[in-house]
Amino acid sequence: MNRKVWQVGGIAAGAVLILIGGAALVLGVRGGSTVNSNLKNEYIVGSPDMQPGAAINGEIAGITAAQQKILAAQKKAKVPASQQYTFTTVDAPTCSVAGQQVNTGSEARCFAQYMRIHALGASSGLTYAQMGRYQAKPDAPIKATDFNGGTNVNTYAVVNTATGQPADNGVRNVWVTETALTSALNLAYTASQISLFGIVVGIALLLTGIGFLILAFSVFGRTPKEVTSPASAVVPAAG
Known about the structure:
Helix content: 40-55%
Mean pLDDT: 90
Strand content: under 5%
Number of domains: 1
């Protein structure tokens, strides 16, 4: 009776694991396919410098030089050390999407890494939080600016003649656009990794479920052999 219970339990557990594993596998495959399909429909193609080499290294060197120039200007303006910028590091990616259409999560992440370098090149190495909201007037005091043509002080901002309001800092807007796009690309990468994880988990559950079924039928499904007790054993007659 106990063996029958174990067998039924093993069969039930195996069937459940196979169903869940199959569902996880299907969802993982469909999720990855959706990510790749959506990326393909955007027709994103990497620029020639989106590969390891002299081109991207030159851009990174230019960003570093711009950051050091801003730091030198802050020191010259006698900005306290505690208020001087701590610049973000810029590293060259090891991947390449130069001339390639982006249609996988890994390629999307690679493209996003190069986009960040391009955005830092446009902002002289400053991040969103370090840039001023508005475009600074040419005669604005240097300490009232972000040392890159932006300011947060209305009185030192260029006025938009159409609205009468301070003009937006175009460089900062470029950074906002870049952040939105790279966030979407990195999300595509995350989704592709989750789908891959679902596939791996699905396969593992399928194999585990099959193992339960084999165990249930091969071990608990066998009829135990009768064991002859010593008391009932026949003793051969003495010669």
